[in-house]
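Example record used in the benchmark description.
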Amino acid sequence: MKSDKILDAKGLACPMPIVKTKKAMDQLVSGQILEILATDKGAKNDLSAWAKSGGHELLEYTEENGVLKFYLKKG
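Model output (structure tokens):
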């Protein structure tokens, strides 16, 4: 999937992936896609809940070699 911006949040513990995601999303316009790379296992629940509460859409989630990859579409 093609993203408009990539956020590397690997190695960061909760709540930093969410804090960084919010800052990155603020720089995008509606409809753009943010790719987030994280290693914190809690990020899966945190990011999906945060996206829903903020009016954004979690398009895709994958996990490969311990790295969680999320694609969020700005609402």
